[in-house]
Amino acid sequence: MVQPSDSRIPYSVEPITIQSPAGAATQSSEGPVPAPSDTSTPSHSQPASNYPEPPLYVREALDDAERLLKYAAETGVDVDSATRDHILEARAASGSGWTEEIVANLLAALTALAARLRPISAESLKAYADDTESTVRTYWIVAILLAIVIVPFSIASFVSSAISSAIRTDITTANDLAVKLRAELGTADAPKGGTPDKALPPSLSEADVIGQLQLYASTVRGIDARTRQLNAFVLGAARDPYIDLRWDPKKSAKENNDNQSKLKALFQLPVGLSNMPKILDDLTSTYQDDRLFAQDTLDLVSVYYGAIATCILPVLYALLGTCAYLLRTFEQQMAIRTFMPTVANSARFLIAAIGGAVVGLFNNFNITQGATIPPLAIAFLVGYAVDVFFTFLESLIGAFTKNKSATPSPQPAPAGQKT
Is the dihedral of CA 292, 298, 299, 304 positive or negative? Predict the structure, then answer.
C-alpha cells in the first residue's frame, strides 16, 4: 500500500516564475543584461492534493463500505482483493490524510459492493442493527391497542346478535301460542272451555292444552331473561317494567321475598290450572309488557351495535390487517436483512382506515354464486392487501362505466322525416 509523502503541503501553491527564452537578454535601464546560463534542473510534477479532514459524505461512504464488507465476510460472499484493499486503504488514510485517488477508489469499491450484495444495502444493514427493536415495539403497541378495542367490541357484537336472534325467535313462538290458545280457550269473560263450570271440547286434549300453556309461560320467561341480559349491553337504557320487583341487595329480605312471589305469580302457571282462560289472560298481559320491553331493547341494540359494526369495526379490522401485513413483511425482510424503516407505513395505515370505512357501507360481498364474505373480513383483507381495495373500486367504477357505455344513444331522424 502506497502511503502519501509527508513532504506534501495541503492545498499549497508554488509561486510561478516566468523565465525568458534561452539565450535571450533582458533589457534594463542601464543596458542589456546577459541571459543566465542554462544550469536549471528538470522540474518535478506537482503532488496530488491531500485532505486531512475529508467531507462528511466520504466518512459516511467509508462506514457503509466497511458495513457491507463485514456482511460479505460473514455470509461468505466473495469480494475481489482490489475492492477490499481500497476500503482498507481508505480506513488507513483516516489517520494519515486523504487523497483524491483514495477517495475515488473508496467510492468505486462501495459501488462494486452495493451491486454485488443487492438487495442488501448499507442502510438496511444499519437498520437491522439499530432500528429493529423500536420497530417491533411500535408494531406490538399498535396491535395490542387494536386488540384492546376490537376484542371487546367483537365479543359484545357477537353475543348481542345471538341474544337478539333468540329473542326474536321466542317472540314469534309466543305470538303463535297466544293466538292458538286464545282460539282454543277463549277469554275469562267468554271461555270456550277449561273452567270449573265448562270442560274442554272433546276435540281438545287436556294434556295438549296444558303443554301449550307451559310452553307459552316458559317462552315468556325466556324472553324476559334474555331481554335483561341484552339490556346490559346498552347499559340499561331500556326501561324494565318489573324493575321494582327484581331482587335488590339494598332491600330487606322480606321485601325481596315478597317481590319474588309476585314475579312468580306473573311468569309461572298456578298449581291446578282450574281456570285456564283466566290464566291465559294473565299470562298474556305479562307477555305484552315483557314484549314491549324486549322490542325497545332490540331497537337500542340494533342502533348502537349496528353503528359499531358498520362504522367502527371495519376501520379497526382494516388497521389490524395492515398491522398483520407489516409484521409479516418485517419478518421476511429481517430474515434477509433488507428491512428499512419508511414513512410509507403511516400512509398505508391511513389508506387502510379509509378502505375500512368505505367497506362498512356495503353488505355481504358475493365472490361466487352462493358464496359471500362479510364486510369485516373484507375490511381485514383491505388492510392486509391495499391492492384489493383499489381493485374493488376499479371494478365498481368499471361496472358503472360499462353500463353507461352500453346505453344506446338516440339516433338522429332521417332527413325529411317528421318526428
Answer: positive
pTM of the model: 0.63
Segment (H or E) for 74: helix 56-75
68, part of any domain: yes
Counting Cβ atoms within 10 Å, is residue 388 exposed (0-12), middle (13-18) or buried (19+)?
A: middle
| Shared domain check, 290 and 156 | yes
**Cis omega (within 30 of 0) for bond into 119:** yes
What's the CA gap between 295 and 171, in Å, rounded?
9
Compute the distance between CA of residue 216 and CA of residue 321 in angstroms, rounded to an integer.
47
Q: Please return the burial class of 153, using the count of CB atoms within 10 Å of its CB with bins 0-12, 13-18 and 19+.
A: middle
Question: Does residue 283 form part of some domain?
Answer: yes
Note the pLDDT of residue 280: 94
Give me the pLDDT at residue 50, please.
66
159 shares a domain with 296: yes
Residue 24 pLDDT > 60, yes or no?
no
- Say if 239 falls within a structural domain: yes
pLDDT(62) > 80: yes
For residue 201, what are the domain limits?
152-305
How many other C-beta atoms are found inside a 10 Å radius of the C-beta of residue 224? 25
pLDDT in tens, 203-247: 889 899 999 999 999 999 999 999 999 999 999 999 999 999 999
Q: By C-alpha distance, which of 167, 289, 298 is closest to 240? A: 289
Q: Which residue has the cell 335488590?
A: 248
In this structure, what C-alpha cell is assigned to residue 83?
475492492
Span 57-82, average pLDDT: 83
